[in-house]
User: Fold this.
Amino acid sequence: MPYRLPPLNGLRLFEAAGRHLSFKLAAEELCLTPSAVSHGIHSLEEWLGVSLFVRGHRGLVMTVAGAAYLPRVREALELLATATEAVPGRRPSGRLSISVAPSFGLRWLIPNLPRFGAQHPHIEVTVDTSHRQIEFPRDGMDLAIRMGRGDWPDLHASCLIVEALVPVCAPAVAGRIATATDLTRQTLLHVTNISEDWAQWARLAGVDGLDLSRGLRFDTIHMAMEAAAQGLGVAIGRLPLIAMDLATGRLVPVLAPARRGRTGYWLTTSREALTRPEVAVFRNWIRAELKETASPVLPQRPA
Assistant:
């Protein structure tokens, strides 16, 4: 006996609208118009013979029927997406969606992505830099690059590179720093939402006497690195994020060598997605690229 199924596209629209409680946000996610989302859900409601949302001036409110239906629909769509990812021998799609931490995306991935495009011009890459937690496969992402220690259950996570910490600054400032005592006379630049900052480096390098209560504070790594490049002080540089700045001379390491941190960057995905050719190609490429900065060789004194 054949399955009696509702319009499958309507289910997809309903799940997105139910998650956001907004036709507009669901439309943005699915690259549709809000009217198309509303019409598709209306068709689903007619097929079911029950309303799923109460539409009002202040937005959507889910009905009792809609609230009961949503988790089942979400589970079914996730099963379909997972089964599709796991089909053996799937033809390459030529598309790859990557979610990446903003700092890593801005300071490493984007500068190096042209090389991937030159080597693999048949793969169209989409990069997402939002902070949201990725749920494979519902979010439509193939891979995610995240900073941490790899303790993510139910995901395939492989460490790409462990961070290495070293103080960095503009060349003019570096010329005034030869010892840890010289460093105590400089302005320290801090990143407020990073745990492994000056205190971690000082412990690893065996440096005492730094007044960590003083200095300038920034809410992103990128802002702190830009401030250092502009000569405002000395920041903790994180390899591989500063590799391009070191190569161009915008930033200079002081009191090297770099010290190995406790966190790193991990490539995460669902186990089913590992069979996709595009995923395998990108994994091999990024591992090879990051291998060059895994063991950085830095000068002991500024040039």
